[in-house]
Amino acid sequence: MPRENKLDKEKMVVVEGSYAVAHAVKTCRPNVISAYPITPQTHIVEDLSQFMADGEIPNCEYINVESEFSALSALVGSAAVGARCYSATTAQGLALMHEVLFNMSGMRLPTVMTIVNRALSAPINIWNDQQDSISQRDTGWIQLYAEDIQEISDMTAQAYKISEDKDVLMPAMTCMDGFILSHVYEPVVLLEQDLTDKFLPKYEPEYTLDPKDPLSYGAFADPNYYTEFRYLQEQAMQNALKKIEDVANEFYDIYGRYYGGLIDEYRTEDADIIIMAMGSVIGTVKDVIDKLRNRNVKVGLLKVRAFRPFPADAIRNVVRDAKVIVTLDKNITLGLNEGALCTETKSILYNTDINVPVIGYMLGHGGRDIKVDTIERIIDEAHEVIRNGIKTESQFIDLREEIL
Amino acid sequence: MKILPGGICQAGTTRVNKTGGWRNFKPVYNYDLCIKCKLCELLCPDSSVIPREDGFFEFDYDFCKGCGICENECPKKAIDMVLEEK
Amino acid sequence: MKEIRVHGRGGQGSVTAAELLAVAAFADGKFSQAFPAFGVERRGAPVLSFTRISDEPIRLRTQIYEPDYVIVQDPTLIEVVDVASGLKDDGMLLINSDFDPETFDIDTKAKILTVNATKIALDIIGRPIVNTILLGAFAGATGEIQPESIMDAVKKRFPGKVGERNAEAIQEAYNMMKEARI
Q1: Which parts of chain C are beta strand (E)?
Q2: Do domains A9-255 and A263-403 have the same CATH topology?
Q3: Most A CBs within 10 Å: which of B8, B13, B16, as the mutation test of the A interface?
Q4: What is the mean pLDDT of residues A112-123?
Q5: What is the domain partition of chain A in residue ranges?
Q6: Residue A126: CB atoms within 10 Å
Q7: Is residue C95's pLDDT more than 80?
């Protein structure tokens, strides 16, 4: 259900996206922060270091480490003793954490980590796409994607509440597009301390590591037990589906700001063409939709906020009556010639009574700007699919043929 | 036994898993030769050498697996490995 | 919506200029957005930054290809970069230079203005840092933004004497360019 996003201009300040996130983290009262600086995540951890040095984050340890692997490992131990933990990373740093990501989710330790989305090397590229977090989609982390800096800031508090819920207990990644959101200055309501204290109570885990009452974490599970742990993790992800919606509503009740729960819709009510996308490209797509709606083009947007857990039912309900679905992916599954959103969307429509064609576009890789006319061209091609059926199911849209 | 999410379990559960039954040879002290040097206590991989108040040691046969490290390391040959009668 | 592109060299404060412009525009009651062209920062290399100013919240996240205004911090860039690329015909190109606008052979129908920001900087601040001064000149030439808002933003960013002197230089540039208002 669409809700009005009440933005109070009086409370807004113009700050950098990274600062807004660091401020939000501070407001969530973390107990342990551990991170290793890497472009374009650096400003977040610099701002947090500054807050620490200025004594603005009470009851918190900032653990300096020599790598991302250690940063997240430090948080595994910290979360096990009941600390509210935070980290941030991107690209190669996230890839280096890969093994520990499984440990954290397997041990069911709530944590929030901001992923400042960036392309993976090689070739070396520090700019934005979403290959880094998409490549970690099977690690058992909740993944939420934000559209602007207000959303990524507010999402930080939401993610703690989802992750720490006793029916969930899964770590969460909040994803923001590198540079496009991390380095932009725009008006934002910084996460309010008084409201956050109301929204996000102290983290009180049922079990903690405590020398006075010892427990074992990270135990061994032989073939008689391992399957059941994987099953429970999947149950937790399914529980998170509802929790993500509930938390978005609770957030709205307290703060008056809403960006959708699992998904959000923009002008989808009678849309023949539904564009599905994640992250900062949403804003540009909305502008294009308004422009085309003025010319009576029936196009709408389905914003995917939660990529893990994947909101199958929510998406099915929206796309049911469309004539074509268009997915935009800043990633590729090499060897399948598709982005992950395209693959997942097709998979949730199979074995259902919904018969809507899906076409996928891969774009915006390694920081290539996604222009208005690119989106318009995609919508033109979607019309062609409605008229004459699918010719190419999935493709790159912004290739520079002249250099190939 | 129900499992807890995340595989959290009670600590120190090796205490209930008595491994003494694995033994084929059991170590036995000859206190006449023992000089209380503590090497056996230090080197026992199963913490099955228990100090006594008089400074000598005794074996915890609930957990000793009979590996024989203590016999091998004893500088005074004060430990004999004796065939278990099963 | 008004779109502004700032050309400079790494280390000249082009990104800071775009940010301060966004802060000042918001103080004027507008919505704003500022971002760099995400280069690998090296001192002296040509860099780009962008600002959008609008009465409505800004959702667009593309780079700016058809700016209303272009600010050039270093005239030597004109030989290296197409500073007028996409500039609207009724737009304005503001160059930091002690030469007259006619001196520059730039392919644009937009109005070209020059301001000797380096001289103002040396006279008032004592260092050849021109980014804030060009904002004052921009405010004077376009009327898009209140000079007080820029001065407040600069003083907040650079507290103390540095901010005060910058504010003075901004006022000077503003007064100078107000007469040339487009």
Answers
A1: 2-9, 31-36, 46-54, 69-72, 92-96, 111-115
A2: yes
A3: B8
A4: 98
A5: 9-255, 263-403
A6: 20
A7: yes
Kindly provide the ipTM of the predicted complex, given to two decimals: 0.93
Predicted confidence at residue A2, as pLDDT, reads 55
Task: Report the top-level CATH class of A263-403.
Answer: alpha beta
Are A108 and A236 within 8 A, CB to CB? Answer: yes
Which residues are bridge partners to A265 per DSSP? A302
User: DSSP letter at A80?
Assistant: H
Which of B5, B9, B12 lies at the smallest CB-CB distance from A219?
B9
Residues belonging to chain B: 86
Strands A185-189 and A12-16: what pairing? antiparallel
| Other Cβ atoms closer than 10 A to A329 | 27
Asked if the A9-255 domain carries CATH number 3.40.50.970, the reply is: yes
List all residues 6 or more positions away from A77 whose beta carbon is below 8 Å from its beta carbon.
A209
Q: How far apart are CA A292 and CA A299, in angstroms?
A: 8
The kind and range of the H/E element at B84 are none
Alpha-carbon distances, residue C94 vs A292, A348, C175, C178 (angstroms): 34, 54, 15, 13
CB within 8 Å: A232 and B3: yes
- pTM for the model stands at 0.93
Which residue out of A224, A229, A238, A239 would a mutagenesis test of the B interface target, given it has the greatest number of B Cβ atoms within 10 Å? A229
Contact flag B6-A214 (C-beta cutoff 8 Å)? no
CB atoms A185 and C32 under 8 Å: yes
Q: How far is CA A110 from CA A30, A172, A186, C151, C165, in A?
A: 12, 7, 30, 45, 50
pLDDT band at C20 (very low <50, low <70, confident <90, very high): very high
- Six-digit token pair at A366? 């390694």
Which residue in chain B is spatially nearest to A224 when comparing CA positions?
B3
Element spanning A263, H or E: strand A263-266
Please report, for chain B, how many H helices and E strands are present, in that order: 2, 5
